[in-house]
Design goal:
With 397 residues, the protein is mainly beta. It is built from six helices and 24 strands. The protein has two domains: 109 residues, Sandwich (Jelly Rolls), CATH 2.60.120; 200 residues, Metal-dependent hydrolases (TIM Barrel), CATH 3.20.20.140.
């Protein structure tokens, strides 16, 4: 057992927010357990792990203990052989008070594998929520989904199967699982998706104290400690998509410097409580002229953020290729799977369940929608559906 005590100060945080505590892992180690203790009423220390061969996990402020073994690991961490050498307990000094913050890191190694904690039972396959009947376009289908959600692999409370079951019950066709700064959930997605009948998109929310971004696709771990331009390059190299998250989201608003601005941005987040407030749309206009807007619930737990599908991102996908549709910008967003909807069919838009609303074209011209299923000529760019009081109901490129 190794015990290291110390105190982090505001000066430490100002000098370098990411810190590490070294831990020696001897040959033959079958389990490593790390515990972090500090006064949570006065500050926040984020927790993670790096081995001699690279990243092994992250739990941020959601946990104060983790175990890694060859056969299993605490959610958020990567199971596998524990290579001998110096490991690093990663600590991000997220909040440090003026008086400083005392901490204790306790690391225990064992040549015997620690028993795996019991797992929760998988929920039964639930009845799917109703689907919207939308015609196909040149063999492509509109699919309903959500691009931002969390599980026990970061700061959510549901397992991957529990989240999949909830998303199906909500009537979604796909769901991106975007746990913070980790990919430990990725190995579980395919089997859970097949079991519950939903496409679970591998994702990760690259999380810093100056902004968050989602990375989607079967890509490698994105090192959140590096500059944002390196995130962009790494995700593009691996064939994924990087999207700026909730850019006006309170203390996690986007404030990161970046030279090559990603085209995708989470314009509609569950935190957009008052959709007569046009700031997210104004931000999108300022970000780049060809921005591709997306939506995300940022689901963590019932009663917090939105439920999966609030808002709903719709993609016009070829053979279920959600990531390909996102790259192409075949995207629409609305408040929920059954809410007023605006989607594109070639040179026309289809407004569903939007009687009495106003369509705003990219050039600013307006058309009043009369009827529950109305087609309107489409222009190039972002179209909006609004109420008479300027509440945004739907977006469509």
């Amino acid at each position: 057992m190794t015990v290291q005590r110390g105190r982090w100060t505001m000066e430490d945080r100002a000098e370098q927010i990411m810190r590490s505590v070294p831990v020696e892992v001897p040959p033959g180690t079958a389990a490593l357990t790390v515990e972090l203790a500090y006064d949570r009423t006065h500050g926040v220390l984020d927790l993670g792990c790096e081995g001699p061969d690279g990243f092994r996990g992250w739990s941020g402020g959601a946990r104060d203990r983790y175990t890694i073994t060859p056969g299993w690991a605490t959610p958020g961490y990567l199971r596998g052989e524990l290579e001998p050498g110096v490991w690093q307990v990663l600590l991000r000094l997220h909040r440090v008070p003026p008086a400083g913050l005392d901490f204790i890191v306790t690391a225990t190694t064992s040549d015997k594998t620690t028993p795996e904690p019991p797992t929760s039972e998988q929920p039964p396959v639930t009845a799917r929520g109703p689907r919207r009947e939308l015609p196909a376009v040149e063999g492509k289908k509109w699919l309903a989904g959500d691009l931002h959600s969390h599980t026990v692999h970061s700061d959510g409370i549901l397992t991957v199967p529990e989240l999949a079951a909830l998303a199906v019950e909500r009537g979604l066709d796909f769901l991106a699982v975007t746990d913070h700064n980790t990919v430990s959930h990725h190995p579980e997605l395919a089997a859970a998706g097949r079991h519950y009948g939903i496409d679970l998109i591998p994702g990760q929310e690259v999380t810093t104290d100056r902004g968050h971004a989602n990375a989607w696709g079967p890509i490698g771990w994105v090192d959140f400690r590096r500059p944002v331009d390196e995130w962009v390059a790494a995700v593009e190299h691996d064939g994924g998509i990087l999207s700026i998250n909730h850019p006006l989201g309170g203390d996690c608003a986007w404030r990161q410097p970046v030279t090559h601005r990603p085209r995708h941005a989470e314009i509609w987040h569950s935190g957009w409580f008052d959709r007569t407030w046009g700031a997210p749309l104004a931000w999108a206009d300022a970000w780049r002229p060809d921005v591709i807007p997306v939506g995300g619930s940022d689901f963590h737990r019932p009663g917090n953020d939105g439920l999966p599908g609030n808002p709903t991102t719709w993609v016009l996908a070829d053979d279920g290729d959600v990531v390909g549709a996102l790259k192409a910008g075949r995207v629409a967003i609305n408040a929920g799977p059954a809410e007023a909807l605006l989607v594109r069919f070639g040179d026309e838009l289809l407004a569903l369940d939007a009687d009495g609303t106003v369509l705003i074209r990219p050039d600013g011209s307006r058309v009043v929608i009369r009827g529950d299923r109305v087609t309107i000529p489409a222009g190039d760019g972002l179209h909006l559906l609004e109420t008479a009081t300027t509440e945004v109901l739907a977006l469509c490129l």
